[in-house]
Amino acid sequence: MPLIHLFRKCNQRCVFCSYPEEGGAEEGVSLKDWLKEIAAMPPGLVQISGGEPLLAGAGGLCLLLAAVKKLGRRAELQTNALAAAGLRSENISKIVKALNAADGYFNVNFPADTAALDYRITRTRGAFKKRLAGVGRLIKAGARVRLTHIISSLNYKRLPEFAAFAVKKLKGAAWLQFSYIKGIGRAGDGVFLPRYAEVRPYLERALFICEKNGLHCEVDHIPPCFLGGFYRLNVDIVKMKEGRPGPHLEEKERVPACRGCRYLEVCPGPRKDYIAVHKTL
Ligand code: SF4
To answer: Structural domains in the chain?
Structure first.
């Protein structure tokens, strides 16, 4: 899927960041350069990422979104939503309008249900309160908001609490994705990667809470064999059925333990970085 990293600049220091600020500079790339790059990308949704894209300001973002729309593409704006708490209302409205015009949505990284846990993960003081306010403002301004909850060893035991929190405090979010941490970037040493089997009971409870309360969910980077009755929520199943190319085929690989699995046709296997850390499923 076409993905652009606007820059490395960010207002958080998440332990799981796969594109950390200290990895090198991306500054100095102009809007014209991005448009050329997007036009040359394969068709489909354009993911606008960072760093933190909202730090680009409303003017630049609206120009970019208008250009994405003009190219006939849809946009996903990935954000931690902190900046949305401080933006002027007219700027929020402008960004939301431009995003909606590109048939797009915000993808908000929301890692915790408490301020203390949020701080352990994002290493950013006051982030939880700002994020909560920021998401509220985006929803109120009429944006479609997808929440992404990255599962790591720091938060997996609170997945049911996070689900209950999302249902109660993040009303109006369009859907919630539970996404297992990638063992790359700052998480490349593997210390924050819990075993799928440890995550499973907490995740199943969380998915049950969401289902009961009508909050649509999906799961990425945890194979269907660890999702019990919720296996259909795995996002790779549709991609595999449709034979879509993409990162799921490069990042994941079946292992000997997959032999004879009932999901073999619709699952590309576990992440390679998971197997590098844990050796087996
Ligand atoms: S193919 Fe492998 S990883 Fe995928 S569901 Fe089956 S056993 Fe699990």
So the answer is: 3-242 (3.20.20.70)
pLDDT single digits (tens) 215-255: 999 999 999 999 999 999 999 999 999 999 888 999 999 99
Using one digit for the tens of pLDDT, what is the confidence trace for 41-75? 777 899 999 889 999 999 989 999 998 999 889 99
Angle between helices 127-140 and 115-122 (to 10 degrees): 100
* Separation of CA 259 and ligand 1 centre (Å): 8
Spacing, Cα 268 to ligand 1 middle (Å)? 7
Question: Is the Cα torsion angle 141, 155, 128, 121 positive or negative in sign?
Answer: negative
- Of all protein residues, the one whose alpha carbon is nearest to atom 3 of ligand 1 is 269
Our mutation pick for probing the ligand 1 site, out of 231, 254, 279, counting the most ligand atoms within 8 A of Cβ, is 254
**H/E element holding 108?**
strand 105-109
Burial bucket for residue 121 (CB in 10 Å: 0-12, 13-18, 19+): buried
Closest CA to ligand 1's atom 4: 269
| Cut 0.85: pTM above it | yes
Residue (of 202, 116, 115, 114) closest to 153 by Cα position: 202
Task: Determine which residue's CA is closest to atom 8 belonging to ligand 1.
Answer: 225
Mutate which of 263, 274, 275, 279 for ligand 1 pocket (most atoms within 8 A of beta carbon): 263
